[in-house]
C-alpha cells in the first residue's frame, strides 16, 4: 500500500517559452529568491526560478550551463544567510516539486520530494504509525536538512538523519537524472549524505521510518535565576547514562512576546529542557518511565514555571519546542563540545546565564551521544558525531546596536568554552558564513571532492559547496 500526502497541489509553472529564469524585475524572481530566514539576508542572484517538476529542474540546469553562470539550489531558503554572500553572480533555483510525500508502511520507507518540509512528511508518516528522523521545526526543508547530515530530536535512536536515507534521485550537471543507492553509484550516494552539497539537484529521497504510534515529548521551563547551575548540572549528569530513545536539549532562552511563545517565558531569561522519548518497540510505559526518571529529580531542584511533557501523537515533536531560529533577524554561532565535567556546565551557565548579562535569545546545548556517535558501515559522508554536545547560540540582529551586542555575547561564550570546543562542526547548525567550520578530515574531504569532480567537472554547483577548504 502506498499512502499519499497532500503536498502535491499543482501551482503555476514558469513559462518555458521565455526561459525558466526570471530577472529581478519579474514577480517570479521574488518568489523564487524569497528567503524564509529573516535573519540575514535577502538573496540577490542574477536570475531566479522555481522548479515544480523534474523537467523544469533539467531545463534550469541546461539554461544555467548555457549562461556560463553557477547554479545555486534551495528549497525553503532557511539557509539564506549562508547562500546570500555568494548569490550575486549565480542563477538560483528553488526546487518545490508538485509531488506528494508517499509512504510504504510495509517496507518502512517514505519518499520525500524536494521542496517538502518536515511538516508535510510527518503528517503522512504519523498517520500510518511511522516515525522519521525529522528536524526540530516543521518548517525545515527535508532535503536540505538531510544533505547536511541532520540532527533530529530522535537522533540518539536514529543516528545522523542522513544515514537513514536509502536512495536519492538527483539531476546532475550534464542533465541526466540518476537514482543512486548503496548498489547504484554508491560513491555519489555516499557523498550526497552529508558531503557538503554541490553535487546536483536532488529531486527526491527515500528515508527509513520506524514503527511508533506515540511519543513522550514536551518542555520543562524554569526561571533561569531560580534554576541556577543545579538543574543544568543534574541534566548533564543524566545525559551520561541516558537511554537512546531519549534526545533532549537544554536552552537558556530570552524571548520577546512573539506568537507561539508561551506567556510565562516572555521577557525573562528561562532555562528550558525539551526533547522527545520515542517509545522503542512501541513500549509506551518504558518511554513514560524514561521521561519521569529524567524529569523528576530536576523538578525537585527548582519549581518549573511551565511543564508540558506528555504522551502525544508523533506530529507533536515538530512543534513541542519554541524555536527562535527563523523567527527574527539573528546572528548565530555553533560548535561541538567534547566531554567535560561540572566545570564545563558551570562555565556555560556563567557565560550565558542570568549573571552574565548576555542578551542572546538562545544559548543551546543539544544532547548527542547514543546512535549519533555510531558510525555504521552504511553511513554517508557525514558519518557520526563523536562529541556529546552541540552548542547553538543566537542573538538579535534587529538593529546595528543589537547586532554588535549579540556578536559580543557570541564571541565571549565561544571564548569562555574554548577548552571544550572541538575543531569539527555540524553543517546544518552553521547559519553564518563567518563561523569557523569543518565537517571532515582531509581524507573524506578529498574523497568527496573526487566524487564532485566526476559528476560536476565544470563546477556548475560550486557555490553550493558548504564546507570550503582552509577553515
Ligand atoms: C527553525 C529551524 C529549526 C532547525 N532545526 C534543525 C534541527 O533540529 N536539526 C538540524 O540538523 N538542523 C536544523 N535546522 C537547520 C536546517 O537543517 C538547515 O538550515 C537546512 O539547511 C535547511 O534546509 P532547507 O532545505 O530548509 O534550506 P535551504 O536554504 O532551502 O537549503 C539549504 C541548502 O541545502 C541544499 N539544498 C536544498 N534543497 C536542495 C535540493 N533539492 N537539491 C540540492 N541541494 C539542495 C542547498 O545547498 C541549500 O543551500 C533548523 C533550521 C531552522 C530555521
UniProtKB/TrEMBL annotation:
Query: Which positions fall inside the FAD-binding PCMH-type domain?
Result: 41-212
Q: Which cofactor does it need?
A: FAD
- Which key words tag this protein in UniProt? FAD, Flavoprotein, Oxidoreductase
**Transmembrane regions listed in the UniProt entry:** none
User: What Pfam families does the annotation carry?
Assistant: FAD_binding_4 (PF01565)
What are the coiled-coil residue ranges?
Answer: none
Give the similarity note.
Belongs to the oxygen-dependent FAD-linked oxidoreductase family.
Q: What is this protein called?
A: FAD-dependent oxidoreductase
Organism, scientific name: Myceligenerans pegani
